[in-house]
Amino acid sequence: MSLEKKKLFAAFRSQEILYKGILGAAFFLAVIWFLPAQETRAGIVEDLQTTISARTSEIESLEKEIVGYRAELEKVGSAKSSLQNEIARIDITRKKLATDIKVTETKITATNLNIEKLTLEIGGKEISIGKRQDAIGESVRRTNEIDQMTLAELVLHSENLSDFWNDVEQIRQFSARAEEEVRNLRVLKSNLESGKTDRERERASLVSLKAKLSDQKVIADTEKKTKDKLLVQTKNKESGYKSLIAEKEALRKKFEQELFNLESELRITIDPASLPPAQKGILSWPVSPVRITQIFGDTDFARSGAYSGKGHNGIDLGVPTGTEVRAALSGVVIGAGNTDIFPKCYSYGKWVLVKHDNGLSTLYAHLSLIKVSEGQEVSGGQVIGYSGNTGYSTGPHLHLTVYATQGVEVMRLGDVKKITHCANARIPIAPLNAYLDPMSYL
Questions:
Q1: Both 197 and 312 in a single domain?
Q2: pTM of the entire structure?
Q3: What residues are paired with 370 via a beta bridge?
Q4: Which of 7, 276, 304, 442 has an alpha carbon 20 to 30 Å from 26's alpha carbon atom?
Q5: What Cα–Cα distance (Å) separates residue 274 from each residue in 314, 410, 428?
């Protein structure tokens, strides 16, 4: 036998305990090599999980607080209109938005901790795989060298041939089991990496949510300014508030009558073939949850004298100020504006008009904040603004109008007809036959 093979044989004899015990404690030799590091890693992971659990409990507590604010807002919204109730609504809205922001920041912290935990777990599996691969390589190398020895060489130089073959078989079993373990660990590593990707995606969405809530904080600050202005205008007296509301109501009626007269004179033929068949699901609800406070057409409110008695030109969805408003379908923003910049022009307030490819256009009005610009392409479900109470509005809500695109156009009112207080305002204008019932498509 060659000197190299004699050395190999001697090596196997001197490490007999390793191979005989390979299916027992020695099978985990690779793990033992880095056990201290694993224990440290496991301790860190456990600490992270404890912190994550604490953050989760904090989130649950804050979300219960938000539910309480929502209930208060609904109660105030259903109460009789008064200066006191309006101030209470603004204050509760600001408190709710501040809590929303805190919830989101806590969620972002928890997600970052989860990502760190997953990263540690993935790193541990990578080390485990590497050590096991080293052990496999060594066992395979030695097994291959033994396989190259002739039977005569094994018989002549083995004290106990049966034991030696047992050693060889145990090495092969170790190799097979270790390879299976590596395959399992790779699957686990892949799953953990997928989890990490999911967490990073979640973190990105939460960062986006934090930006949204920052917008809502702007809205809340605007609400505070509105409150301060309201107190100045009314001199903090209920009688002053009632006078202000009466003036707004008179100006709103005058505007609606003038607008109705203008749109009644428009004559545009709408081709029915240009419209999608009336079917549920053509459009998606722009807010959640859905609470319809006024339907399209001849409503009780319309019969009471609103809209010049000609019916409501859309639907109203009752939602708190700062609720995300999403595009009902993909399309292009063909108009956006704010009628409130014109004194005593009580109309849509902040509004957005989106033209869709199916012959429909949708208007979102009384917004508190606009997040898109004219000419911008939007996808279905994309946030285009936040609900509010701008323009003439009896309370926070979203007004949604659906038009036949053929009939609607964004115009400066003064370029078409004299409109008191609103001549410089740009809003969507359409003949009466271009207004469609949103419920036919939602």
A1: no
A2: 0.74
A3: 385
A4: 7
A5: 20, 20, 19
